[in-house]
Amino acid sequence: MSAQPLPTLAEAGRKIAAGELSPVALTEAAFARAEALNPKLDAFIEITAARARAAASRAEKEIAGGRRRGPLHGIPYGLKDIYDAAGLRTTAHSRLLLDNIATADAETTARLEAAGMILIGKLATHEFATGGPAFDLPFPPARNPWNTAHFTGGSSSGSGAAVAAGILPLAMGSDTGGSIRLPAAYCGTVGLKPTYGRVSRRGVAPLCYTLDTTGPLTWTVEDAALALQVLAGHDSLDPGSADVPVPDYCARLRDGVKGLRVGYCSAFNRDGEVDAEQTAALDQAAQALGHLGAEVTEVAIPPNAQFQAVARAISHSESFAIHAKDLRTRPELYARVTRERLMLGGFLTATQYVQAQRLRRILTRKVDALFETCDVLLTAIIPAAAPVLEETDDGPWRRQQPLASVFNVTGHPCMAQPCGFSKNGLPLSLQLVGRAFDEGTVLRAGHAYEQAAGWINNRPALATLS
Amino acid sequence: MPDDPHDEFAAAVRRAGVTIPPERWEQMREAYHGMQALLKVLDDPLAYEDEPMSMPRFDAGAKP
User: Fold this and answer.
1) Which of B9, B13, B64 sits opposite A239 (nearest CB)?
2) Which of B19, B32, B43 sits opposite A347 (nearest CB)?
């Protein structure tokens, strides 16, 4: 096994540009690490070795010939297995799609491929990006690299595990109610949910049309910026895509937070029953941002109960609409937890769905108004460090993870990143939120905090994995 | 499976057209009532002009 985690996107890009690192060697390092660690982590559903080796060889020749495509050329990445990659299976971690071969790339896949990245494999997810960790599926649930007895968070579970374990510097996730940010938080990585409409969803298995977003999980904030630079942009074939100019996300990344107005949502955190350890870590992060020159003030988000009602009514209704036929005709093919959670959407009324979409607009306006006096918001994303995998809620009515869906409801960009560790050595996390389509300020604030706090210097002690 | 026509949950299951095995009926009924309790806030009155979030957009940016 490669003794060291793969370098970050930024570091690998610099070394490749300088001729100090070969895409072929980097790809082989990813394979070696995956082969050694995946049996313990179950992060991958499929490793695409032949395809990756051919792509790495091609990249190496292009770069040697002076045709380097950009900062991500020749660097490995992975896809949550709801993203299409032409010629590969997209299973959504489900028995229903075991033979589903994609005929074209998702738009996001196509953008990463055009940037010259090397697809290493397809990654575990909660079935159809919903449900929860399940043991009655064709593939096992991913495990947390910090402690394999613990939950990765989901639904982009394999993405969080693979990035945290240093197998991949970039893995794509999707986020309908926290599914990028939760595994990022529990696995101690960065997870960026862009503004709804900023990154194409075309070619990604849908869960909820009006809430689904796609985005990257990375080890650093700078890497999230580099990935977003490639991923962001209008897609006229995605009905939810927004035609909004894409700025240079790295241009102001290092501008710091002096004078930046940070709204700290501590009442929201209490509302979400955040535990003492996580609360203390958030308080310290708020203080750290203040020490860096930000103006930190308390702000109040509308009651979480309203967001929860809106998120549940919309996500359950839309996901049932997508899965109704299969739930009626072949329900036994789903994991029990997926089946039961999806079925709940069939019990909602059209009136509840419409009322939820009406209240959603009101809540979005209220959150928009907070940005008249703030540039970013600081909130909790998880109530506590990762629970034990076997103790995660597997009932039909999910009681955990009450914090994450707020900004799916409003569509604002938000990012989870590490802010400490629990007493039992598991990552704690914070969430930064920005104005619609202002991912740049979120990344700038996150980068400043990350560099000052230094949590990224801690990797899971993989040698002690049991 | 309980099939009391006056049972709100049983009616919802019939309308959804799904089948719930008897051994999971009570858990699903509890989940149903938990969800309905959470969604109660959606009954709060809204103004006529409060339109839904997901309105069709016929601008240049998207193909409906």
Assistant:
1) B64
2) B32
